Amino acid sequence: MASLNYNIDFGSVCKTQLIFCMVLYFVFISLSNLYPSCPSSDFLSSFWKTAPDISISSRSVVSPTISNDSPTISAISNDSPTITNDPTISNDSSTISTISNDSPTNLSHLVFGLVGSELAWHHRKAYIESWWRPNVTRGFLFLDKEPTAELLPWSRASPPYRISENLATFLKKPDLTAQRIVHGILETFREDHENFRWLVMGDDDSIFFLDNIVEILAKFDHTRYYYLGGHSEFIFSNYWFSFSQGFGGAGFILSAPLAKALAKDLENCLRRYEHLEAADLTAMSCIADIGVSLTPLRGIHQMDMRGDASGFLSSHPQFPLMSLHHFDMMEPIFPSMDRAKSTSHLMKAAKVDQSRMLQQTVCHHRQSNWTFSISWGYSVHIYERIMPRSYLQYPIETFETWLPNPTPPHYMFNTRLPSNDSCEAPHLFFFKSIKTTPKNDVFTSFSRAWSRGLLPCSSNSAEIITKINVISPETKRTEIERCECCDVVRVHGSKATVKIRKCMSDEIIA
Ligand SMILES: *[C@@H]1O[C@H](CO)[C@@H](O)[C@H](O)[C@H]1NC(C)=O
Ligand SMILES: *[C@@H]1O[C@H](CO)[C@@H](O)[C@H](O)[C@H]1NC(C)=O
Ligand SMILES: *[C@@H]1O[C@H](CO)[C@@H](O)[C@H](O)[C@H]1NC(C)=O
Ligand SMILES: *[C@@H]1O[C@H](CO)[C@@H](O)[C@H](O)[C@H]1NC(C)=O
Ligand SMILES: *[C@@H]1O[C@H](CO)[C@@H](O)[C@H](O)[C@H]1NC(C)=O
Questions:
Q1: Which CATH number covers residue 102?
Q2: What is the structure's pLDDT at 479?
Q3: Are 477 and 359 in contact (CB under 8 A)?
Q4: Does one domain contain both 374 and 226?
Q5: Contact (CB, 8 A) for 396 and 375
């Protein structure tokens, strides 16, 4: 969403902001050095503590905790002296008291609010239809105006549409785009909040991985106040908008009590922050005023980058993939396919196993000194020397910055620079096809994108390999706190076969 409002005069603010940014950065560096043992993942660890079972396949929410907490719900619902602008939002407890606290969260508990525009929907429809499950996924697409004849009759594979409310009745601003997006939260809530646990807001050029979203949400207590989302990959976007906001194109997720409280205050809040031009910043401000701060999740991707995103997608953070935004802004993610085709191609793998989607698995073929780095369902890289996982976890910077920005740091993660050194540059293979075998294995094949065109690193060139088969278990991944391991089981002629398995307790990937 934030991208909609990027037509700021970037050049003029750039210099002063950057200098300030650098100062902050160095303060941060020196502070971190003062506390070298401070773990970086503190933020999430407190959440994981409340959910002792972090195995991704187990949907059992910690029921004792939840049932003990249920009195808070009624307390929450009965309070609120807040002004209700909307008579349909009752403040009695009926809306959320129907939540059955002992049943695991499933897709039926999620309601999506996707905000798009009539103009863009003609080509963005393909992105949404690639993941939307008609009559199963709940939610609506909000358009700025009635669809033209070309879009009618409305596709059954698309979410049902609604036309956004006219906000000019209470806001006096010429451009209400940002406010229309934020108001979508209230409109979605109003349309459908029966037995819902989570409200997911997103843009119309994003792909959501529903099974993973459900798995992750099932670990949170939906009767509490949660605002889940993702940062921008581009540091400056976080600085310029806010490090405290979830970048909404990629989706932010509100638990039921928060969605309810937000819907109630929304129109007041839009007046309070009428001066803001950015939707996500406005939404964050409204949420912060309710007393809730962002819990960032590393599987939600704004994809604030340009050009070739393959380097990023080949070294995905160790967290289940939840969303990918900005499909319109980068090159198609598969070579020789257009954007729509790339999207449905990626979803072929996602339909078989979302738990492994883009998860990076590294193994070595010692006889030839090769390293295989697999991004499940997307790509395989072969390097002609032994490289440790610690190094390969950093994406190769195949992509460019979201906005022109000469001064590093650019990204919220470390990168490796592309290289023409034959001991550094990988051979690239992309996802071709997937099938389940009678032996309950998943068989994914990858084919070479192009010849690397460099001399071999040592005596063993991987240039002859044109096809790689990756075999993974049909059972979903159950550990998200440790990656999986693999074995190169066969290299024969132009073909290599790699098998993914659980890591041994003392296994070292280097
Ligand atoms: C909500 O609560 C307020 C104050 O407690 C009350 O005045 C109002 O009538 C309630 N609204 C509804 C729809 O129940
Ligand atoms: C989802 O959970 C509800 C209970 O909250 C249950 O009634 C429903 O059958 C479940 N749906 C699926 C698809 O498992
Ligand atoms: C969804 O449900 C409606 C009404 O129950 C039905 O007419 C329609 O064919 C269904 N769509 C799909 C894609 O199953
Ligand atoms: C693999 O690399 C090691 C260390 O660089 C080297 O000693 C060995 O000869 C290499 N083996 C092959 C087959 O290239
Ligand atoms: C690698 O070589 C190619 C072809 O000579 C060139 O276009 C490219 O810019 C080089 N890349 C780097 C990172 O040096």
A1: 3.90.550
A2: 85
A3: yes
A4: no
A5: no
* Tokens encoding 100: 């059955």
* Predicted confidence (pLDDT) at residue 508 exceeds the cutoff of 70: yes
- pLDDT range class, residue 478, cuts 50, 70, 90: confident
Residue 420 Cα, ligand 5 centroid: separation in angstroms?
A: 6
Question: In this structure, which residue's CA is closest to atom 8 in ligand 4?
Answer: 369
464 vs 65, residue with greater confidence: 464
Question: How does pLDDT run across 60-90, given as a tens digit for each residue?
Answer: 222 223 333 333 333 333 333 333 444 445 4
Is 185 a member of any domain? Answer: yes
The bound ligand whose nearest atom lies closest to the alpha carbon of 453 is 5
For a ligand 5 pocket test, name from 400, 415, 420, 451 the mutation site with the most ligand atoms within 8 angstroms of its C-beta. Answer: 420
Last-in-domain residue among 279, 298, 317: 298
Q: Are residues 74 and 215 in the same domain?
A: yes
Q: Say if CB 316 and CB 323 are below 8 A apart.
A: no
For the chain, what is the domain count? 2
Structural domain includes residue 372: yes
Cβ–ligand 3 distance for 134 under 6 Å, the answer yes
Q: Whose CA is nearest to atom 1 of ligand 4?
A: 369
Tens digit of each residue's pLDDT (9 = 90 or more) over 157-214: 999 999 999 999 999 999 999 999 999 999 999 999 999 999 999 999 999 999 999 9
Residue 293: give the domain boundaries: 2-26+43-298
Judged by its nearest atom, the ligand closest to the C-alpha of residue 94 is 1
Per the prediction, the chain carries an average pLDDT of: 85
Ligand 4 centroid, distance to 369 Cα (angstroms): 6
Q: Which of 96, 106, 107, 133 to mutate to test the pocket of ligand 2 (most atoms within 8 A of CB)?
A: 106
Ligand 4 binding pocket includes 460 (Cβ within 6 Å): yes
pLDDT of residue 101: 58
Of 343, 348, 318, the closest CA to residue 331 belongs to 343
Of the residues 298, 318, 348, the one at which a domain ends = 298
Tell me: do 188 and 258 sit in the same domain. Answer: yes
292 Cβ contact partners less than 8 Å away, ≥ 6 residues apart: 225, 226, 227, 258
Closest CA to 345 of 355, 356, 357: 357
With respect to residue 37, please indicate whether it lies within any of the assigned structural domains: no
Q: Give the H or E element holding residue 401.
A: strand 399-401
Within this chain, do residues 213 and 323 fall inside the same structural domain, yes or no? no
Confidence class for position 229, pLDDT limits 50, 70, 90: very high
Taking the centre of ligand 2 as the mean of its atom positions, its distance from the CA of residue 76, in whole angstroms, is: 25
Residues 311 and 411 in one domain: yes
Written as one letter, the residue type at 267 is E
Asked whether residue 287 falls in the same domain as residue 309, the answer is no
Question: Which two structure tokens, joined as six digits, stand for 479?
Answer: 């550990």
Within a domain: 36? no
